[in-house]
Design a protein that fits this description.
By secondary structure, this protein is mostly helical. It has a single domain, classed as Na+/H+ antiporter like fold (Up-down Bundle). The protein is built from 16 helices and no strands. The termini are far apart. The mean pLDDT is 86. Its main location: membrane.
């Protein structure tokens, strides 16, 4: 494990020193980190497995997700839905639930031996989108700015919205599997309410206090940036103390903080204020991608699972596109634009974190379906969305009306 940590830190330093060169080579940070993790994983896979399945690793992964969800929630520009309320709300509250349902049904057909709660866990792993492995898409001027903005805003919210469903399904499938369904639902509801309350109080209080202290010149811009990194950590700790979910609380805190900090005019946060939190989030995200590369070796070394590979491929290619086309019909987007929104859906950090948490929580080995499915969808996303999807989307939209 020490070798993995040392090499991982060294690769992070090398990536930071060569980021622009990597981008000029049409590569992304996640691709470099995954490739490095795969190489190291070939030598330390067994040792990594022993350290991955621990309570300490689980808490670390949860804390990383809390930070990333908070950053996502604070970065949305142009109001709660980025000025695209009708489109984004359809994607989040119509298309995504349909995608989750379709993923559960597909899983039931392809994986008949897997229990219902685990199928829901699988769906929560393979459906949320994240543009970390395909960030050039968001800078590709061949794709209309509106399309890039819509999918970016959506990806900032969907993992936070899926999180409570994931936590509830995981509790039914994991250590609380012997609990009555109604009792588990009630327990999950209370945990969600406590998480939401924690995020509301901490995020709201931080936003009010920071807005006031900045107005009277009591807080510097530098210390304000520190606060943005500390808020999700504090929220996570408070929620855990209340036996609630820390990363759900951090997501709520991010939304509330952004609204309160913006004041009565609902102004966007200054990018300079969120820059440090964004940088820290990107750094820990890169570490997650390195760990994912090592996990991929661990997963595929246990054999080829055609059903899970097919499930992951269907999830990436079909289970998002079809619901998006259905739910965006008769919207302000043309047919080509709807197709582009449906096609631009890479999976990334949220899928990795949910896969790791499922691996820790569920009683199974390294060939656990959630971990395998996570590896398949993320690897496919790196290949498809890092290479094939951008030119395809540009070609699709070139002749739009």
């Amino acid at each position: 494990m020490a070798l993995l940590i040392v090499v991982g830190l060294a690769v992070l330093v090398l990536w930071a020193l060569s980021e622009r060169g990597v981008e000029r080579a049409r590569l992304t940070g996640p691709i470099v980190m995954v490739a490095s993790g795969v190489v190291v994983g070939l030598f330390v896979a067994k040792d990594f497995n022993d350290h991955l399945n621990t309570a300490q690793a689980e808490k670390l992964v949860e804390l990383i997700l809390a930070l990333l969800l908070f950053v996502d929630a604070t970065e949305v520009r142009g109001g709660p839905f980025g000025g695209e309320g009708r489109i984004v709300s359809r994607l989040l509250f119509l298309a995504m639930p349909l995608s989750l349902l379709a993923a559960v049904v597909t899983g039931a057909l392809l994986l008949p031996s897997v229990s219902g709660p685990v199928l829901v866990v699988l769906a929560c792993i393979v459906i949320p989108t994240d543009f970390a492995p395909a960030s050039p898409i968001l800078r590709n001027t061949g794709i209309p700015a509106r399309i890039r903005h819509i999918v970016n805003v959506e990806s900032g919210y969907n993992d936070g919205i899926v999180s409570p469903i994931f936590v509830f399904a995981l509790s039914l499938a994991g250590k609380r599997a012997d609990m009555d369904a109604f009792e588990a639902l009630l327990d999950g509801l209370w945990a969600f309410l406590f998480a939401a309350a924690s995020g509301l109080v901490v995020g709201g209080a931080a936003g009010i206090v920071l807005r006031g202290t900045r107005r009277i010149g009591f807080t510097s811009a530098r210390s304000g940036r520190f606060v943005l990194v500390l808020i999700p950590i504090l929220t996570y700790v408070v929620a855990n103390g209340l036996q609630a979910n820390g990363f759900v609380a951090a997501f709520v805190a991010g939304i509330v903080y952004r609204v309160v900090r913006g004041g009565s005019r609902h102004a966007d946060l200054d990018p300079a204020e969120t820059a440090f939190a964004d940088d820290v989030g990107q750094l820990v995200s890169m570490a997650m991608w390195f760990g994912f590369g090592a996990v991929a070796v661990l997963v595929f070394s246990n054999g080829f699972e055609p059903e899970l590979v097919l499930y992951g491929a269907i999830a990436v290619v079909v289970l998002r596109l079809a619901p998006v086309l259905l739910c965006l019909s008769r919207s302000s987007l043309g047919w080509r634009e709807r197709c582009a929104v449906g096609l631009l859906g890479p999976r990334g950090t949220a899928s990795i974190v949910f896969g790791f948490l499922a691996f820790n929580e569920l009683p199974a080995g390294p060939d656990l379906p959630p971990l395998y499915a996570m590896t398949v969808v993320v690897m496919l996303s790196i290949v498809l969305y890092g290479v094939a999807a951008p030119p395809l989307a540009v070609r699709l939209l070139r002749g739009r009306g």
